[in-house]
């Protein structure tokens, strides 16, 4: 079977409903864009901001992720299973930017939604796995993808959105509205094995 | 209907299968216990470490959480819906310590499992909503519940376990094996509204 079993409809299947991205109000973000762009109007007619699709396996999504960290050698079957698991679980808002001229993913970020009992059974968002193709400088892609999923978290009712980052990225995220909260901004990790 | 609709079997329903807690090997943790205890042998015969159950709504689980942060006024129906949503989504390892003499929850911590594409479609753990009843001093409850869910993350195949914490808790978590990674230990937040 392999790739052949995926017909056009299955390939274009989204991991979440794309309509929600069209109604995000970028004027609510403290981020400054120049020129002003948004998920609905990303600034170039060959660029689109949308949820991950099954066919992004064939559009360089994993190759882009591998610029961020190791991905290993993920087969179509593995990708497809994880896509299905994430979609069934709900709460995985994997979001990408595609260059439609060449059918390649050039930016990605994931919002995960964590269900809580606290705060009246609220939900919390997390920003994960942000990466942009650095040959597209000057297109504000990093800002565009992060603000998109941050506004999405708000739209979905999160009481807060959280991220962990390296020192060199603090200023970037501060410009988008994220804060290091005094006395409460420590990200700690325990690592169990070398990632593959 | 209300509470009456929950029969004994439904009330004792676990949010995840409890057997896995019995096989956690506490000698793998760098945490030092004195005396040595574990999830299977928590040190007192009236104490049990187990997954959250539906009936914990009636055993002070939410009252305990409210010692950590605001919970709002959660009805039985809301609790039940969130319990079901978490169980259906998978990945919510809400774990508690009960004092069986008084049928009250005296400690809690949650491991959430986040599915990834990176690292060969791996999974990452997060430690959330840790709270212990501080009238049980000297029972090592904080250490017990955190080590339990940390070993659980490893058992479930996570490549790492992460947490965000206040400055005053850094030493405690370091003693359990968590590290502030140099240059990469910043937890940032964007808050959207006052939590209820």
TrEMBL record, chains A, B:
Entry keyword Signal: no
Family the UniProt entry places it in: Belongs to the acetyltransferase family. GNA1 subfamily.
PROSITE patterns (alphabetical): GNAT
Gene Ontology terms: biological process: UDP-N-acetylglucosamine biosynthetic process
Pathway where it operates: Nucleotide-sugar biosynthesis; UDP-N-acetyl-alpha-D-glucosamine biosynthesis; N-acetyl-alpha-D-glucosamine 1-phosphate from alpha-D-glucosamine 6-phosphate (route I): step 1/2
Gene3D superfamilies from the UniProt entry: 3.40.630.30
EC number(s) on file: 2.3.1.4
InterPro entries given in the database record: Acyl_CoA_acyltransferase, GNAT_dom, GNPNAT1-like
Source species, domain of life: Eukaryota
Domain N-acetyltransferase: 47-196
Chemical reaction(s) catalysed: D-glucosamine 6-phosphate + acetyl-CoA = N-acetyl-D-glucosamine 6-phosphate + CoA + H(+)
EC category name: transferase
Protein's UniProt name: Glucosamine 6-phosphate N-acetyltransferase
Keyword Nucleotide-binding in annotation: no
GO molecular function: glucosamine 6-phosphate N-acetyltransferase activity
Keywords: Acyltransferase, Transferase
Organism encoding this protein: Euphydryas editha
């Amino acid at each position: 079977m392999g790739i052949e079993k995926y017909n056009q409809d299955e390939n274009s299947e989204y991991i979440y409903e794309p309509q929600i991205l069209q109604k995000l109000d970028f004027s609510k973000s403290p981020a400054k864009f120049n020129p002003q762009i948004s998920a609905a109007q990303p600034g170039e007619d060959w660029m689109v901001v949308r949820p991950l699709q099954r066919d992004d396996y064939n559009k360089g999504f994993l190759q882009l992720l591998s610029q961020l960290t190791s991905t290993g050698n993920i087969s179509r079957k593995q990708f497809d299973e994880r896509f299905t698991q994430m979609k069934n679980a709900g709460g995985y808002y994997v979001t990408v930017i595609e260059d439609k001229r060449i059918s390649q993913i050039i930016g990605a970020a994931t919002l995960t939604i964590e269900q809580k009992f606290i705060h009246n059974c609220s939900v919390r968002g997390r920003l994960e796995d942000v990466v942009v193709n650095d040959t597209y400088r000057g297109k504000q892609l990093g800002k565009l993808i992060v603000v998109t999923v941050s506004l999405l978290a708000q739209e979905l009712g999160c009481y807060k959105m959280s991220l962990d980052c390296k020192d060199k990225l603090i200023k970037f995220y501060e410009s988008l509205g994220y804060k290091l909260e005094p006395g409460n901004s420590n990200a700690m990790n325990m690592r169990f094995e070398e990632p593959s």
